Amino acid sequence: xxxxxxxxxxxxxxxxxxxxxxxxxxxxxxxxxxxxxxxxxxxxxxxxxxxxxxxxxxxxxxxxxxxxxxxxxxxxxxxxxxxxxxxxxxxxxxxxxxxxxxxxxxxxxxxxxxxxxxxxxxxxxxxxxxxxxxxxxxxxxxxxxxxxxxxxxxxxxxxxxxxxxxxxxxxxxxxxxxxxxxxxxxxxxxxxxxxxxxxxxxxxxxxxxxxxxxxxxxxxxxxxxxxxxxxxxxxxxxxxxxxxxxxxxxxxxxxxxxxxxxxxxxxxxxxxxxxxxxxxxxxxxxxxxxxxxxxxxxxxxxxxxxxxxxxxxxxxxxxxxxxxxxxxxxxxxxxxxxxxxxxxxxxx
Length: 348
Ligand SMILES: [Zn+2]
What we know:
This protein is an alpha/beta fold. It has one domain: TIM Barrel (Alpha-Beta Barrel), CATH 3.20.20. It contains eleven helices and 13 strands. Strands 1, 2, 3, 12 and 13 form a five-stranded parallel sheet that branches. Strands 4-7-11-8 form a four-stranded mixed sheet, with helices on one face. Strand 5 and strand 6 form a beta hairpin. Zinc ion binds next to loops.
């Protein structure tokens, strides 16, 4: 969703470094602490919902890393990854290292790719390259190394002859399962929206025999990124002119990103601060994502360092039970199974 990539800054925000707030004394906060304690102790017995709560699951922030590569003309660092095979190979190695670090940290990653990178994988992931990833191309390797924690989603600007269905077809052709996630779209201004068409199956332009039916959209952007959605939560957008309104009659789901800044956790920390201060109602599912610039992974050491720093900063919140890492398709499953598809549209 972000196409002009500023140099990532090390994560050292004073808010991020602030100590985790002390436990509060309202009933449902104590219940959440009990949940966290039970999880720490490995106790799997059911936790009773607090009195007055309308859902068995406690309010919690679900977060995942998301990366984009984009078409090279709209993403300067990706121009080199997409035009120089040597650079592609070093970036490939950095992707593998990032995946391993994310898994070691217990975090999750939605790798979102546009058509150009996927065609490079087709062209350049030869037997020698695949030797570094168990004989698999990088897309299949990412999708199979830990399917509950790393997934490959389609991302498309729907230019250059490829639409979202075409990109989804390329992802699947490389051996990754369909996640049903639309990895970025325009919601405003309403006349420029690109998402309502996903309520019905989309037929490929380049692969017209392929039809794709997404389950959820993520990354609501504005034309030229002047007014991107910073909503958190999961809901069914009502219409082009009422994006932030839930309509239970709709089946297409939106997963809010809270913040789309590169390696920025301000939106995540804001949600955790509000949760810790007792400002969020119980029984709600909050969502947030953290962008990784894929094409910078190999040429800027600050990127991997920031990924590690972010997982460390968020670890205490995970231990408390206030935050859970989950890929976007996993968030969708949790919303349905544990939050009974209860909509939440949180606009900070
Ligand atoms: Zn993009």
